[in-house]
Amino acid sequence: MKRVVPRVMGRSSRSDTDGSPGWGPAAAAAGPALRAVGLTRTYGEDESLVWAVDGVDLDVPAGQTLAVTGPSGCGKSTLLQLLGGLDRPSEGEVWLGGRRIDHLGERALARLRRRSVGFVFQAHHLMHELSAAQNVELPALLAGASPRAARHRAAELLHQVGLAHRARHLPSELSGGQRQRVAIARALANDPLVVLADEPTGNLDSAATHDILRLFDELRAAGQTLVVVTHDERVAATADRVVSMRDGTLADDTRLDGNRGRRHGHGGTGLGGTGLGALLSWED
Ligand SMILES: Nc1ncnc2c1ncn2[C@@H]1O[C@H](COP(=O)(O)OP(=O)(O)OP(=O)(O)O)[C@@H](O)[C@H]1O
Ligand SMILES: [Mg+2]
Description:
Layout: H1 25-30, E1 34-43, E2 50-60, E3 65-69, H2 76-83, E4 91-96, E5 99-100, H3 106-116, E6 117-120, H4 132-142, H5 147-160, H6 176-187, E7 194-198, H7 206-221, E8 225-229, H8 233-236, E9 241-246, E10 249-255, H9 276-279
Helix pairs in contact: 4-5, 4-6, 5-6, 6-7
């Protein structure tokens, strides 16, 4: 697999066709890539009221990879969807690249998601009737890139995730791990400010998980801001920082030690002394 080099560090050449102020490197440098302030999302009402996310304050600096862990139902997916503008908070604020996004209108929010957020889900959500290359081209085309530029970018990304030889294949002709690598390439198509991944290895076997771990490591090394929700200790071990959630709140926030080594085997992750094992000890 080639090194994945998202163009996150050199964003200045990107044109901004919606004319909205405050994007690009200056905005990113002005504050964290992502910020949540008092972020709250409730579902239902009265006795069926659920506090899925309950007053979360979180800053994710540009270039940080953050793993979000915690037991099933603690609010991880809800938090991620709020951060990416897929859902709206009941209370609180979400800031992306120095711009408040939680009260944007639907169209502005959709445009922002397309251009500034790359999503990777547990199920790849590729378009079944489109080839791998066409799937990766699509976000760029939707964001207004020329067909030629979109094709070029897709070819580059598929090469970087080691799938140049599968560019013309349909998702049904790819393995689960290959599909997820296409999904990651697609998430990077518009050089997003942040990549948000929800259980990206949840459906994968150990070997395919290993490929995704290598990609995440490459993204981290390239300075891509990445938030990944995961139950997998090996995935969390690729992060700079791990937060664990309990009942909609942040229960723990740990910066991982940079000396622990980042080599992944299919077995252990060499996490001795990082405290990560303890953080993940709810898993059984
Ligand atoms: N659309 C909804 N309507 C009502 N309650 C919801 C809805 N979506 C989520 N919830 C509730 O909000 C809480 C948080 O759900 P969420 O999906 O964020 O958890 P999670 O941490 O991602 O869990 P998992 O690890 O199982 O994916 C849960 O109690 C869930 O039942
Ligand atoms: Mg979830």
